Amino acid sequence: MRSTIVLFAFTALLVYACGGSGTPGKDKPFTTNARVDDGKGVGGVTEVALSTPLDQAMVAAGKSMYELKCAACHRLTDMRVVGPGWAGVTQRRKPEWIMNMTMNVEVMLEKDPAAQKMLEECLVRMPNQGLTLAEARSVLEFMRMNDGEQ
Fold this sequence. Notes:
Elements: H1 2-18, H2 56-70, H3 89-92, H4 95-103, H5 105-111, H6 113-122, H7 133-146
């Protein structure tokens, strides 16, 4: 009987010692390491200054880049070939997102929810075309022209 009382007392002491203060989470504020999706994507481009009117030299360079590296998979309409069509992309996505997607494809597909959703729809990973910052900016300017911006 004595061993039962000792065992019971020890168990009660253990439960008491492991118990909380009765106010869970009151001492510590809730924090998370989750990234807030600001619509700019993941990568080095955090701010893009858009020109008005369009920079025609950049539009021409972007058109050449599109024809060389993008036209095999993307159309200027809303038609999907391998990748999605480009029509309306500058209204759906922020300029920073577009540039991060063209320059940091692997990271975007790994970490950006919108890029991951497109991968689920298209089922083909966009290959990294090795665009420089200037080339990506030119492609963005060409996309803006394609969407009817002046």
